[in-house]
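We treat protein structure as text, and this decision shapes the records that our systems exchange. We quote a single record here, exactly as it is kept in our systems:
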Amino acid sequence: MPNTESPQNVDETEDKAMIDMQEQLRKDAASWAKERASSSALRQGGDLPIAVANKPPTRVRKPAASAVAVVPAKPVTAVKKPFGMSYDGVTTAEHITDMINRGRR
C-alpha cells in the first residue's frame, strides 16, 4: 500500500503530535508543582505525623562480683642498692682505673 499522505499532511500530523506532547508535559509539570507545594506546606506546618520509636527495654545488670581483697604492700625494710653493671667480678673503680691505663677515657 503506497503512502497516500502528502508531505504537508505528514508535517501537520508531526506538529500536532509535538504540540499534544508539549501540552501533556505542561499538565504534568503543573500537577507535580501543585503536589510539591502542598507537601512543602505540610512540612512547614508540622502537620505530618511523627512516629515515635519505642525505646528498647533497659537491661538490668547483674550485681558485680565482690572485689578481690587487696593485700597491703609489704613495707620496705632494707634499702637496696641500685642496679650496677658487673665488669667480670671487678668493682667499678677498678674497671675505670683499668680503662684509663689502657688509654680509654
Notes: The first helix runs from residue 7 to 45. The mean pLDDT is 78. The two ends are 119 Å apart (CA to CA). The chain is about 45% helix and 0% strand.
